[in-house]
Amino acid sequence: MKQKQFAIIGMGRFGSSVARSLHTLGYEVLAIDSSEQRTQEVVNMVTHAVQADSTDEEALRALGIRNFDVIVVAIGEDIQASILTTLILKDMGVPALIVKAQNELHGKVLTKIGADKVIYPERDMGVRVAHHLISPNILDYIELSDDYSIAEIRASHSMFGKSLRELDIRAKYGCNVMALKTGDKMNIAPYAEDQIKENDILVVVGRNENLQRFEETFSE
Ligand code: ATP
Predict the structure, then answer these.
(1) How far is the CA of 46 from the centre of ligand 1 (A)?
(2) What number of other Cβ atoms are within 10 A of residue 173's Cβ?
(3) Given ligand 1 and candidates 35, 58, 75, 77, which is best to mutate, with the most ligand atoms within 8 Å of its CB?
(4) Looking at ligand 1, which residue's alpha carbon is closest to its atom 25?
(5) Pocket of ligand 1 from Cβ distances under 6 Å
(6) pLDDT at 113
(7) Within 10 Å of residue 144's Cβ, how many Cβ atoms?
(8) Closest Cα partner for 200 from 174, 218, 175, 173?
(9) How many CB atoms lie within 10 A of CB 111?
(10) Which residue, judged by its Cα, is nearest atom 14 of ligand 1?
(11) Exposed/middle/buried for 196, CB within 10 Å: 0-12, 13-18, 19+?
């Protein structure tokens, strides 16, 4: 199977991090930025780095942007450039278009004009950090929708030695334990008889209020 090829537009902190990570993972990455300096900064960390203005349709065509499997638009501050770029790429019929939004309104416009996925890295990271600050037992928190999330919760003292069946998490709290982490080992879809040990981490999915109730019951 042919490996996916990625084009990332906008080499700010977010865009360059996505580009570098994909390249480190062994994927072909084209990095595009209108600034010569930004392009130079990433030249050794991606497959190709090109200086180009993504609001210039001809320039994008010349780069063969349509041949890429996934395109990430990571232009933040210049909302007009972000919207224009999205519109042009959508018109060209690129297969998958992921766009970073600066705020909710920007995100709404991007969805309306056909972005396949809109991401809010600062907002999402803010939510994750806030949950960890409220409760240090919550190691990570990922919003799946407005109502549902996945939380990584450190096992508390009162859980040690108990099985998932004994804790009866699904019936009592309406949450599902998707996985149990013990050190480096990940137990996906654990059995009801699996016991929770000290230092285990529970990966739990559920409604936000149920996750909160679950976490509060076991916080020490
Ligand atoms: P971050 O928070 O990830 O650092 P940001 O949201 O502040 O980024 P900007 O710094 O505004 O985003 O933009 C990211 C990059 O996008 C900049 O390096 C900028 O040069 C580039 N950029 C802006 N407009 C265009 C454009 N029309 N074509 C290509 N690149 C562009």
Answers:
(1) 17
(2) 21
(3) 75
(4) 34
(5) 9-15, 32-35, 38, 53-55, 75-78, 81
(6) 96
(7) 11
(8) 218
(9) 15
(10) 12
(11) buried
| 162, amino acid identity | K
| Length of the chain (residues) | 220
Kindly state the tokens that stand for 53: 């203005």
Average per-residue pLDDT for the chain: 94
d(CA 5, CA 25): 12
pLDDT digits (tens, 9 = 90+) for 17-66: 999 999 999 999 999 999 999 999 999 999 999 999 999 999 999 999 99
Whole-number Å distance between alpha carbons of 70 and 66: 9
pLDDT surpasses 80 at 220: no
Residue type, 150: I
Give me the helix-helix angle, 104-112 and 79-92, nearest 10°.
20
pTM passes above 0.85: no
The span from the CA of 132 to the CA of 206, in Å, is 17
pLDDT one-digit tens code per residue, 161-218: 999 999 999 999 999 999 999 989 999 989 999 999 999 999 999 999 999 899 888 8
